[in-house]
Amino acid sequence: MRKAVRQWLARSTGATAAALLLAGYTAGATHAADQHGHDMNITAHFAATVVADPDTATCGGFDVSARGRAAGTPIGGNGTWQDQEKACTLSLPGQYDINGTAVIGTGDGDRITLGYHLTAPLTEAPVVHPSGTYWIISGTGAYASATGGGRMNSVVDLNDTSHVSTSLHGTLY
Questions:
Q1: Are 51 and 67 a contacting pair, CB within 8 Å?
Q2: Is 158 helix (H, G, I), strand (E, B) or coil?
Q3: What is the CA radius of gyration of the chain?
Q4: With 90 as the cut, is the pLDDT of residue 3 above it?
Q5: CA 169 – CA 21 distance, rounded (Å)
Q6: What is the C-alpha separation between 130 and 92, in angstroms, rounded?
Q7: Which range in 26-30, 33-37, 162-166 is most confidently predicted, on average pLDDT?
Q8: What is the DSSP letter of 61?
Q9: What average pLDDT does the structure give for the chain?
Q10: Which of 59, 108, 148, 168 is the most exposed place for a label (fewest CB within 10 A)?
Q11: Cα–Cα distance between 81 and 19 in angstroms, integer?
Q12: CA angle, corner 23, sides to 173 and 155, nearest 5?
């Protein structure tokens, strides 16, 4: 069980980091049209809550939720991060298969919602590095018509899920 929790946390951290990065990018935008085609380079730091997923037949993993802060270009330093994800250990042999959604908020109340898919090797090591892609699902306010996506990379210490980090590198259109 401890090994599964560590693996799940690693995936959760990666997803959360991506969401935080995206949130940080949108917080700094004053108008969606002004941000089209701009690079996003956001880092998020958050605490993750992990519980066993009830689907032991096809998932065999964890349900994760997280909240924290996001910062970077172009959002500045006051973004927020929230995510929900499922980190399965049975769907991809030898890998965590992490799928989730995240909401990045700005200081002005605008939001970007994104989806993500990350993977990481199942390992006994306490630190996991989930990585994969994220895509923008929708937005509000200045980001009502936002699209785009990119790469998401996370660092999760399965022994300390209160200090997870993630980074988003991509483009907002």
A1: no
A2: coil
A3: 15
A4: no
A5: 8
A6: 14
A7: 162-166
A8: S
A9: 82
A10: 108
A11: 6
A12: 115
